[in-house]
Amino acid sequence: KKRILDQEFSRMNARQREAIFSGRGPLLILAGAGSGKTTVIVNRIAYLLKYGDTYHCEELPFGLTEFDVDLLEEYLQNPNPAFAERVSELIANRPVSPWSILAITFTNKAANELKERLIGTVGESANDIWANTFHGACAKMLRRDIERLGYTRDFTVYDTDDQKRLIKECTKMLNLNEKNYPVYQVLSVIGRAKDKLLSPGEFAESAKSDYRLSKIASIYKLYQQRLEAANALDFDDMIRLTVKLLAECDDVREYYQKKFQYILCDEYQDTNYAQYALVSLLAEQHRNLTVVGDDDQSIYKFRGATIENILSFEEQYKEAKTIRLEQNYRSTQVILDAANQTIKHNVGRKGKTLWTENPGGEKIKVFKAKDEYAEGVFIAEKILDEVVRYGKNYRDFAVLYRANAQSSAIETALQRSGIAYKLFGGYKFYERKEVKDVISYLGVLCNRQDDLRLKRIINEPKRGIGDTTVDVVEALAVSSSRCMYDVLAECGEYEQLARSREKLTAFYSMMEELRAKRDLMAPSLFASEVLSRTGYMEFIIAQDKADGRERAQNIETLLANIQNYEENAEAPSLTGFMEEASLATDWETQSEDGQYVSLLTIHSAKGLEFPVVFLAGMEEEVFPSSMAMQNPDEIEEERRLCYVAITRAKQRLYLSYAANRRTYQGLRMHFPSRFLKEMPTEYLDILNQPEPVHTYAAAGTAAKAPKNPIYNYRAGSSLLSGKKAPEPTGEEYRVGDTVQHAAFGQGVVLMAKKMGGDWMLEIAFEKTGTKKLMANYAKLTKP
Ligand code: ATP
Ligand code: MG
After folding, report:
1. What is the pTM for the complete model shown?
2. Pair 304, 195: CB distance under 8 Å
3. 68 Cα distance to chain centroid
4. Pick from 651, 737, 600: which is nearest to 391 by CA?
5. pLDDT at 699
6. In CA terms, which of 73, 482, 578, 736 is 20 to 30 Å from 139?
7. DSSP E strands: which ranges in 532-676?
8. Which 3-state string (H, E, C) describes 260-310?
9. How do 156-158 and 130-133 pair as beta strands?
């Protein structure tokens, strides 16, 4: 049995196999980046599904015939796929069912990849596995049982924008000055309290001695009351309330404890207290908990994550088995060395060795740009260059940055070059105003208690319902402990509303009419109905031209998303879609073939890998961020972030920084990041300065280059890199030139740009349409 399993999982190394075949009980895998932790999770699930968890039991199942034993022997000599199924049947003892496995990861992208990898390994039955983010898994549990906590199943999930609005309202209602209690600060204090599972009362107790905190505690209290009244949850509530549900309702807890025979949690170093409590509760009965993580990649301290969860695992589960993996399979030697050298500068770490058998690879390319736009242009050009030079696809690239705000200059450059990209976890599609408006209509139509969203749309488009009227409706609702929608239903009875009665009634009847149709139509049809009946679409189209068009397009995209959801969901419903939308974080430009460059913050790139990675904004005050500069602990967290970023790359890594950058403080000069300085120069290949391209330094100067060239290098120091530029042919290209290509035939130049020793051209070919090419590499000729 052991021999057959080893053979089946022969791609894995011995330690990985040990983890995959570990029997029951708690298991901790502690290992560095790219050492196959996630791969082990996938394979462990595959193993459990196929063979059960009885690797360690010596006996084969009862009743094997001699013929069976012969078959097994022969299979070992020659693993003929035709017998594979029979062999699994013979050695499997009690396979674990897919629905009794819970696999948790951090980002939507990682969860999707996990699902894909599982389907690839074990087939369609993987669809029954709960492979989710924390929020995704919690949403599923809450949809089933949230009524036990006094909410209804139609609950709304508030995003950050909703949260901020609500906090502002609460701050105002408590007569506190928003200047002294800035919304982002309050938001973060409440978030941290929720991460620690502190209720408003408990938080108030702990904040008693601090005047400011106790005021924030009162905001928290009101905020929570308002959320509950609106039948709404914020993101942190999703986890907090699931823990509450499991802790308070014995039958619910027992149901899930029994259901989830195996729980596997990726990126465990980044769990906060609430997530830790959730996992612990769920795993309490079977204790079959596998957690994997890397202390060097802990990057969510600011979100309350505590590395203690992973470090104290062995104390929490005395019978736990710990496995360390040390071989990196992802990156080249150069990339891995650079990562190891960088993280070494952290003092507060346990330290570990990570090695690879992968070949050395190319040096890390460093580029200094004039400003952030030039940086974007550099990235776009390099992507096109790589596509032509190495036959790469857009999917092979990721551009990583420290903060979301950095994406816009890069986006502009990619758009201008016609490169399709997908923005992950950035400025969310669902937070665009027009999209949010439509979502708010749908939200109120699902959940009448949602006052916040009702206020957003009651006069959008304009219906002559003024702010004063809305305030009166709200005051009436508050004084009678009802929701605003209920007040609208009876607006005829209130003297105070006499003057706007007609308009309010018209709005209310329109909404009621729509509500009656809600469950009779497919969600996408219903959404179209809402758009036309409320006059919202007309209002958007009537807006100023260019802007209106973009907004209309966004709404079209929203409708397409609903349709897409309908086609893929098992039992599509409007609430189901709303839930999906509230958890969505990604935004994709149109790409015909599903090929796009990924744009993500380093945080959302965790766990992912790409052949070519660009790490942009390698500047002090950007990365490390200005917020972290004063605090050595925070600098260490930034350095771990840098380690995460470097280790995403498989083959090539580009680092770039801008000498000047526009921030909210205006245009400012920036210095290269200390992380660049920490990387040993022998791994770096400093690319040309952008300005005077043709002034090559003499070879002798290059030899005398200062120790760390980033701080003092000359134009053309690419001679240091030893990499040869393509031989220029001396040919010049202009827009309108006719050119000839061996495969594509004749074409006309639409765009021409000198890049290094070559020309990047966009050419309309008669036969094949428009293509971007590097002239010398593509061996173009001029007829
Ligand atoms: P991270 O810390 O970044 O999350 P990880 O430890 O989860 O990394 P994986 O993503 O599982 O690492 O694996 C990294 C790469 O190495 C993947 O491309 C995977 O297919 C490959 N890999 C893992 N184990 C092996 C192996 N035994 N042989 C060959 N390739 C492997
Ligand atoms: Mg991983």
Report:
1. 0.79
2. yes
3. 48
4. 651
5. 33
6. 482
7. 586-588, 597-601, 610-615, 649-658, 660-663, 666-669
8. CCEEEECCHHHCEHHHHHHHHHHHCCCCCEEEEECHHHCCCHHHCECCHHH
9. unpaired
- Residue of 481, 482, 503 lying closest to 492 (CA atoms): 503
Write out pLDDT tens, residues 485-541. 999 999 999 999 999 999 999 999 999 999 999 999 999 999 999 999 999 998 888
**d(CA 617, ligand 1 centre) in Å:** 27
Structure tokens at 79: 């693993």
**Stretch 27-36: mean pLDDT, rounded?**
95
Give the number of whichever ligand sits closest to the CA of residue 37. Answer: 1
Q: Where residue 712 falls among pLDDT bands split at 50, 70, 90?
A: very low
CB of 689 sitting under 6 A from ligand 1 = no
The answer to whether 36 is annotated as binding is: yes
To the question of whether residue 34 is assigned a binding role by annotation, the answer is yes
Q: What percent of the chain has pLDDT over 70?
A: 90
Atom of ligand 1 nearest to the CA of 644: 3
* 426 annotated to bind ligand: no
Query: Strand 586-588 relative to strand 421-424: parallel, antiparallel, unpaired?
Result: antiparallel
User: Closest-lying ligand to the alpha carbon of 647?
Assistant: 1
User: How far is the C-alpha of 122 from the C-alpha of 260, rounded, in Å?
Assistant: 19
DSSP letters along 707-770, please? SSGGGS--TTGGGGG-PPPPPP------TT-EEEETTTEEEEEEEEEEETTEEEEEEEETTTEE
Residue 354 is which amino acid?
L
6, 29, 38, best to mutate for ligand 1 pocket (most atoms within 8 Å of CB): 38
Enter the DSSP assignment of 208.
Answer: T
Ligand 1 and 625: CB distance under 6 A: no
Cα 23 from Cα 761, distance rounded (Å): 59
Q: Is residue 237 annotated as part of the catalytic site, yes or no?
A: no
What digits encode the pLDDT tens for the residues 401-418?
998 888 888 988 888 888
Active-site position among 648, 650, 652, 772 = 648
Per-residue confidence band for 701, with pLDDT thresholds at 50, 70 and 90? very low
Q: Report which DSSP code applies to 624.
A: T
Helix (H) or strand (E) holding 145, with range, is helix 134-145
Q: What gap in Å lies between CA 386 and CA 378, rounded to an integer?
A: 12
Catalytic site residue 590?
Answer: no
39 lines ligand 1 (CB under 6 A): yes
Name the DSSP class of 97: P
Catalytic site includes residue 38: yes
Residue 275 catalytic? no
Q: Is 332 in the pocket of ligand 1 (CB under 6 A)?
A: no
Cα(18) to centroid of ligand 2, in Å?
Answer: 18
Mean pLDDT of 2-8: 81
* The dihedral sign for the CA sequence 734, 736, 739, 741: positive
Return the residue whose CA atom lies nearest to atom 26 of ligand 1: 12
411 lines ligand 1 (CB under 6 A): no
Q: Is 777 in the pocket of ligand 1 (CB under 6 A)?
A: no
Peptide bond into 690 cis (omega under 30): no
